[in-house]
Amino acid sequence: MTYETLEVTIKDHIAYVAMNRPEKLNAMNGTFFSEIGKAFKALDANPDVRAVVLSGNGKHFTAGLDLKESGSVLGAAEGDPARVRDKLRRHILWLQDSFSAIDTCRVPVIAAIHGACVGGGIDLIAAADIRVASEDAWFSVQEINVAIVADLGTLQRAPYLLPLGILKELAYTGRKMMTDEAKSLGFINHIHSTKEATLEAAFEIARAIASKSPLAVVGTKAVLNHARDHSIADGLDYVATWNSGMLLGEDLMKAATAALTRQETTFANLLESDDPA
């Protein structure tokens, strides 16, 4: 599948998704929101994919919402006020779903960030599993500066990634957070010297993930996301149910044998769904 605002390739069980509007600093227009959701839903359904690396082409990761096309992105319309607001609410839910497709993608997603990551970029990377950044990267919850309440996931997911007081300061002021602060707070996993080094580090993590049992990786992400959104008791019950259904497969014996013999092993892909949609 080809895209207007993205480059998507798959090699050695790793998908690479690059935002591809470098001349616009990867600003997010309506086409982008449609394509990012479609791309991650397609990757979720692809049994050959075991990890995803997400980056941006050009000078910056993303400048966030394309303000020049904000009318189409925000779904502006005229008519009965109640109906217009209902339409806008459903449109915002659709925009949210485009990024939730990253969060719910069954395989881990590693964001490789360089330069500016502002506004919708924070929503985007908050939905990823792992974040690595170059030394020149910086972050801003930019929505407050254009009189918008961030509504695509930053205020819901980032409290699990940042201390609440820091997040509130960022969201209330729109100030820049540089990589050293982001690293010290645990928002990003690692800092690297250049964009290229950052991208290679992301692929190194992806290769490590892709070498593991895909069933175990998918299960680990599902259990972690469930634990984030539920109580400890619910999480323990969920993982007990998951493992009672998945633990007795061939991957366990392969992994155990490899550990005992200190040899590498390979694991079969998960099966393709009869109805990927």
The count of strands amounts to 9
**How confident is the prediction overall: mean pLDDT?**
93
> CATH homologous superfamily of the largest domain - what is it?
2-enoyl-CoA Hydratase, Chain A, domain 1
Radius of gyration equals 20 Å
One letter per element, helices H and strands E, the order comes to: EEHEHHEEHEEHHEHEHHHH
Q: How many DSSP helices? A: 11
The order of strands across the largest sheet is 1-2-3-4-6-9
Determine the N-to-C terminus distance. Answer: 15 Å
Low-confidence stretches: none
CATH topology tier name of the largest domain: 2-enoyl-CoA Hydratase, Chain A, domain 1
Q: Roughly how much helix do the residues carry, as a percent range?
A: 40-55%
Task: Give your account of this protein's structure.
The chain is α/β, with parallel strands linked by helices and 277 residues long. The chain has two domains: 6-210, 2-enoyl-CoA Hydratase, Chain A, domain 1; 214-261, Lyase 2-enoyl-coa Hydratase, Chain  A, domain 2, CATH 1.10.12.10. It is 47% helix and 14% strand. The protein has helices spanning 30-45, 70-74, 81-104, 120-126, 154-157, 164-173, 179-184, 195-210, 214-229, 232-246, 250-261, and strands spanning 6-11, 14-19, 51-56, 109-113, 116-118, 130-134, 138-140, 177-178, 190-192. The strands form two sheets. A six-stranded mixed β-sheet has the order 1-2-3-4-6-9, sandwiched between helices. Strand 2, helix 1 (30-45) and strand 3 (51-56) form a beta-alpha-beta unit. Helix 1 (30-45) packs parallel to helix 3 and helix 9 packs antiparallel against helix 10. It is globular and about 65 Å long. The mean pLDDT is 93.
